[in-house]
Write a structure and sequence with these properties.
With 523 residues, this protein is of the alpha/beta class. Helices cover 25% and strands 28% of the residues.
């Protein structure tokens, strides 16, 4: 008998094949295309099929943002898509927390399938979001699914969101439950909204071992797992690791993860005799019309909202080359920092270009421009730090660049693979600095001044950054929740829109307060 496990992860609210940069797109991703693959597999497969939604679904796209922020809509309008796709179980991801606990709980309540989360607990040690596991019986086969979520969420979320929760190690949690499940089921599946902290071939660390990703350690230390579903890192993985089939299906519904287990009948039930892992690209599949039809009314509403004009630009604020925009100050970057400073009252601001898809602002700025450039539902926080803290942050941000063999500046490959981390390279406004990449790591900050005076290590500064960075996100350990002195509890997209309404005509200007050396080839 063959057991087929289908899994999605990190779809981030992308339903139709569009990233909302323009109307009428047919891009190679989206839940509607994934559903076409799922229908085909269900139609052509003999034997039981189990479907798992592995988290990070309710946040990420312009559509999901619109539903979350509009008083006329609710999360069940989005989650009905998952119900229509007919999953057996679901897992929560870290981005499920972005719109607050009440929104997350409303999403969980709206699902037709159980949500599993074994390692996030209330203070009284009860499970906070659903059962730790479930056992599904199909064609006489008992399939146990254990749900786990990265416990690193407190490093990203607002303190008030997570203050009453306990986040346990997924390795220790799996050690508790997997042996129990081996006695209750024929097949044990672990669905983990998290990824791998080490190279899958060599075992060498690929990131700081913070506990954000513990997949490699789990498969080293927890025997008895028959299939392992992962996510969070947006990687495309399909292989056998330590004898266990592993999948991670990318993001935005670009792929469906599939694991096939061959089962043999035994005196005790069923045993796995062989396995296969693969990811199936959605690129060549049509968008399922029954999925698209759900939003026949809402899609035009969202598109009209995206096209509403907010302001005008004098000059060029389009990002023609995202790499150059990180090396030579770009008007869009300076504008975002100016918005943050205006909203917070801080004199120093840091921000990032989150990915390479943002296009900057067209001459006529619309909400579409705002939300497709500033893709996260960040709020702002003001930190009180020292000059030494700020210099240390600059040294860390310098690590996102390196020189190739020809002496040309490139984005550090270890922050592109296994997961792109463009969002962790910050650019600052409110002081002057130079990063010289020819210097040794840790000594790359040369110029470091404010109002013509070198910033003293003991000097106290107020700086504004997004909430993710303020609590140390991106492993900026010089920042922490304890250093936050005030917060601006309005999403950045709203702050940008409000700024443009107050300043409907803006200029594409830069003051070139930072330099990245060497400059050869980047001017």
């Amino acid at each position: 008998m063959k057991l087929t496990i289908m899994a999605t992860s990190d779809m981030h609210g992308y339903i139709a094949p569009t990233n909302f940069a323009e109307r009428n797109q047919d891009l190679p991703f989206g839940a509607a295309k994934i559903y076409s693959i799922m229908k085909e597999i269900r139609k052509n497969t003999n034997g039981p099929v189990v479907t798992i939604e592995n988290g990070d679904f309710i946040q990420g796209s312009a559509l999901s943002y619109y539903i979350a922020k509009s008083p006329d809509h609710e999360v069940s309008e989005l989650t009905q898509i998952i119900n229509l796709m007919d999953y057996d179980v679901g897992i929560i991801g870290n981005h499920e927390f972005n719109y607050g606990l009440s929104y997350l709980k409303a999403a969980i309540k709206s699902y037709h399938h159980p949500i599993l989360c074994a390692n996030i607990l209330n203070q009284d040690d009860t499970e906070a979001f659903g059962k730790p596991y479930t056992i599904i019986e199909k064609d006489g086969v008992k399939i146990a699914v254990l749900g786990l979520t990265t416990p690193y969420i407190p490093h990203w979320e607002k303190v008030e969101t997570v203050k009453d929760l306990q986040f346990k190690s997924i390795v220790e949690t799996a050690k508790k439950y997997v042996p129990e499940l081996r006695g209750l089921a024929d097949v044990v599946v672990v669905a983990y909204h998290g990824g791998f902290e080490r190279d899958l071939a060599t075992g060498e660390p690929t990131e700081r071992l913070t506990g954000e990703n513990e997949g490699y350690q789990l498969l080293q230390e927890v025997p008895g797992i028959d299939a392992f579903i992962t996510g969070h890192q947006h990687r495309e993985i399909a292989e056998i690791l330590n004898g266990v089939p592993v999948i991670q299906p990318g993001y935005r519904g670009a792929n469906l993860g599939v694991i096939e287990l061959e089962l043999e009948k035994t005196a005790a039930g069923f045993a796995v005799t062989s396995s296969l892992a693969e990811i199936i690209s959605a690129a060549d599949y049509p968008a399922a019309p029954e999925i698209l039809s759900v939003f026949e009314t809402l899609t035009p509403e969202v598109e009209t909202w995206l096209d509403q004009p907010l302001g005008k630009v004098t000059g060029d604020m389009i990002i023609h080359d995202p790499m150059k925009a990180r090396l030579v100050e770009h008007p869009y970057v300076e504008f975002i920092n100016r918005v943050q400073m205006s909203a917070s009252g801080a004199d120093i601001s840091g921000t990032a270009l989150f990915n390479n898809e943002g296009r900057g602002f067209n001459p006529l700025i619309t909400m579409r421009d705002v939300i497709t450039n500033y893709i996260y539902p960040n709020t702002l926080a003001v930190l009180k730090i020292t000059g030494a803290d700020l210099r240390q942050a600059l040294e860390q941000t310098a690590n996102y660049f390196q020189l190739d063999d020809d002496g040309k500046i490139i984005f550090n490959p270890k922050f592109i693979m296994p997961k792109p981390q463009y969002y962790n390279y910050d650019m600052w406004e409110g002081f002057d600095y130079t990063l010289d990449l020819r210097n040794p790591v840790g000594s790359r900050v040369t110029e470091f001044s404010r109002n013509g005076q070198t910033i003293d290590p003991d000097e106290t500064l107020e700086v504004v950054v997004n909430q993710y960075r303020a609590v140390g996100g991106g492993n900026y350990q010089m920042f922490s929740a304890e250093k936050i002195v005030r917060e601006i509890q309005i999403d950045m997209t709203e702050l940008i829109a409000d700024y443009l309404k107050a300043h409907p005509q803006i200029e594409a200007t830069v003051n070139h307060n930072f330099k990245i050396l060497p400059t050869e080839g980047i001017e």
